């Protein structure tokens, strides 16, 4: 039977290739055991591509990314590339992917695993059952707005300035992603800005409300000021389902929410673009962590962030809810059994390597599918 989904896998540098080997075992497991079948291509990105081709991503790999239904990315970078020319540095490979695929909505879930509740900086009872999603607009706003710069005033002192700008269409498309996600989840969106002090925030609130009224009145919409949202995230994070915000506030709130769950080795993410004529959204899935040069090559890295990124891929690119849940349930079960990589080690648990964590996940998937 012909494969029905095409995947481009870009392992990258450092621990990227190590964690991806384990994820690839799970991809192959799905290929063999479930209805979905994958046509997988692998490519080089970051330092690996620079070493082989003198560029952090080749045009051929970009073409593969454009053609694929989804891209699964590991991590890039390492101290050996610190002296590479700026436009050839490993992270430029990732930036080009995001830019050329026009990926404007960054999705970061904050999901707690029962077995890791103690890893959160908050009390277990505050984060128990937490399952929220932050949708951050990632190509506009103050990080890209012009004019920007540092100028010297007549009195001789310097003045730094940036510009926060959002067009209606930029707001509509990211809000649309948030509403669509809410329909796949618990049906609630909290839109976050500072309409009390920012004009762009006033427009943000108006446009989100208009879109809601026009096309998403079945979703429950609330508005919240960004400072209050930060406070609510640490006070009662379980009140949220989907949070949508601009580039700046989304950046801060998503890092804050990430720490509610404990470890960098457990955090997946996705970046989505606009749907094409066939309804297919361009999408890239990646763990939040970097290439971790301090532990690379030691079979110590936690592969679960990358594996959970694959679960997001199943859910958000292919609408395979049951398959995504299989992965997430396998992770829950393995953690509950006390199997841990070093970064999430707890007293009384068994410390295992990257490879053994992969073995445990595959064994658990076999058990669940039996
Ligand atoms: P990092 O995320 O690579 O590592 C931070 C710390 O967390 C390290 O101590 C590391 O060992 C640990 N860690 C990270 N992922 C882990 C995992 N899966 N399992 C166990 N421990 C894990 O961040 P950094 O040290 O600031 O950056 C290292 C390199 O990665 C740099 O070159 C940086 O530019 C790059 N980077 C890449 C990305 C990306 O590819 N998206 C993101 C962030 C950083």
Structure description:
With 370 residues, this protein is of the alpha/beta class. The chain has two domains: 1-109 and 264-370, 3-Layer(aba) Sandwich (Isopropylmalate Dehydrogenase); 131-260, Isopropylmalate Dehydrogenase, CATH 3.40.718. The protein is 41% helix and 21% strand. The chain has twelve helices and 14 strands. The strands form three sheets. It has a ten-stranded mixed β-sheet with strand order 2-1-3-12-11-4-5-10-8-9, with helices on both faces. A two-stranded antiparallel ribbon has the order 6-7. The chain has a two-stranded parallel sheet with strand order 13-14. The longest helix has 19 residues, at 15-33. Residues 15, 75-78, 91, 94, 264-265, 286, 289-295, 301-302, 305, 343 line the site of nicotinamide-adenine-dinucleotide (NAD). Nicotinamide-adenine-dinucleotide binds at residues 15, 75-78, 91, 94, 264-265, 286, 289-295, 301-302, 305, 343.
Estimated share of beta-strand residues? 15-25%
- Biggest sheet features: 10 strands, mixed
Tell me the helix content.
40-55%
Rg from Cα: 21 Å
Q: Low-confidence runs (pLDDT<50, min 5 residues)? A: none
N- to C-terminal distance:
23 Å
Concise account of the structure shown:
The chain folds into two domains: 216 residues, Isopropylmalate Dehydrogenase; 130 residues, 3-Layer(aba) Sandwich (Isopropylmalate Dehydrogenase). 41% of the residues lie in helices and 21% in strands. Strand 1, helix 1 and strand 2 form a beta-alpha-beta unit.
How do the strands and helices of this protein lay out in sequence?
Blueprint: E1 5-12, H1 15-33, E2 38-42, H2 47-53, H3 59-67, E3 70-75, H4 91-100, E4 105-111, H5 124-127, E5 131-137, E6 149-152, E7 158-161, H6 168-184, E8 188-193, H7 199-215, E9 220-225, H8 226-235, E10 242-245, H9 247-259, E11 268-275, E12 281-287, H10 304-316, H11 321-336, E13 339-340, E14 350-351, H12 354-369
Helix pairs in contact: 1-10, 1-12, 6-7, 8-9, 10-11, 11-12
This protein binds nicotinamide-adenine-dinucleotide (NAD).
């Amino acid at each position: 039977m012909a494969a029905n989904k095409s995947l481009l896998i870009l392992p990258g540098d450092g621990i990227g290739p190590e964690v991806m080997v384990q994820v690839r075992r799970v991809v192959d497991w799905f290929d063999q055991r479930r209805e979905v079948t994958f046509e997988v291509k692998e490519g080089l990105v970051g330092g690996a591509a620079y070493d082989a081709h003198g560029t952090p991503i080749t045009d051929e790999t970009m073409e593969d990314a454009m053609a694929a239904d989804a891209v699964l990315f590991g991590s890039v970078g390492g101290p050996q590339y610190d002296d590479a020319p700026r436009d050839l540095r490993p992270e430029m490979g990732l930036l080009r992917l995001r830019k050329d695929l026009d990926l404007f909505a960054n999705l970061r879930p904050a999901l707690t695993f029962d077995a890791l509740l103690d890893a959160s900086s908050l009390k277990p009872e505050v984060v128990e059952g937490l399952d929220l999603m932050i949708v951050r607009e990632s190509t506009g706003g103050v990080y890209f707005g012009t004019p920007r710069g540092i100028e010297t005033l007549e009195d001789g002192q310097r003045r730094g300035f940036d510009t926060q700008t959002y067009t209606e269409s930029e707001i509509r498309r990211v809000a649309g992603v948030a509403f669509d996600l809410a329909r796949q989840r618990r049906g609630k969106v909290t839109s976050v800005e500072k309409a009390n002090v920012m004009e762009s925030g006033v427009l943000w609130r108006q446009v989100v409300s208009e879109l809601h009224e026009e096309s998403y009145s079945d979703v429950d919409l609330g508005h919240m000021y960004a400072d209050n949202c930060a406070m609510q995230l640490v006070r009662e994070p379980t009140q949220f389902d989907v949070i949508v915000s601009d580039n700046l506030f989304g950046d801060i709130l998503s890092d804050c929410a990430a720490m509610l769950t404990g470890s960098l080795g457990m955090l997946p993410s996705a970046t989505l673009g606009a749907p094409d004529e066939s309804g297919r959204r361009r999408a890239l899935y990646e763990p939040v962590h970097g290439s971790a040069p301090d532990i690379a090559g030691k079979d110590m890295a936690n592969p679960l962030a990358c594996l959970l990124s694959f679960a997001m891929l199943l859910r958000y690119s292919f609408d395979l809810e049951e398959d995504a849940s299989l992965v997430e349930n396998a992770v829950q079960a393995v953690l509950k059994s006390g199997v841990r990589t070093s970064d999430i080690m707890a007293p009384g648990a068994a410390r295992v390597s990257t490879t053994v964590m992969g073995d445990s996940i595959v064994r658990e998937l076999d058990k669940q599918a039996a």
